[in-house]
Write a structure and sequence with these properties.
The chain has 149 residues and is mostly helical. It has 5 helices and 4 strands. Strands 1-2 form a two-stranded antiparallel ribbon. It has a two-stranded antiparallel ribbon with strand order 3-4. Helix 1 runs parallel beside helix 5 and helix 2 packs antiparallel against helix 5.
Length: 149
Amino acid sequence: MTTELQPIIDRLDALIANLNTTERRRLAVEIARSLRGSQAKRIRENKSPSGTNFEAKKPQPQLRKRQGNLRMFSKLQRSSWLKSKGSPESASLGFVGFASTIARVHQYGLRDRVNKNGTQYKYPERELLGFAASELETVETIIIRHLAK
């Protein structure tokens, strides 16, 4: 992920270093909030950072009869699970609680139990968090706008 941000870091690192800690923290919070919104929207739409759709989940006829067609990660993108944080040194975005386990299994395509006593299943890799080209441009725009103030 650092390699994707390297061009932005190289161009703006010296300017950001001149900001005081309060201004750097405000900038990091603004970047984290912006990324949280775009990441949540993409998760809600079941799309990867590259713009492709997630691999569809296995058919679940017993659930479909009761609840209709369920979308994947319908609650995972909520602000109670997907948190953004900013500090003078960094801006971070991640899942908290049990949502972090679910997200990690899907992000890396790991093996996990379907339910508490269920069989294990190797989930397909579905990249939940990542940078799209438009998000990189948004981060750069936020930094430039903040430095222009």
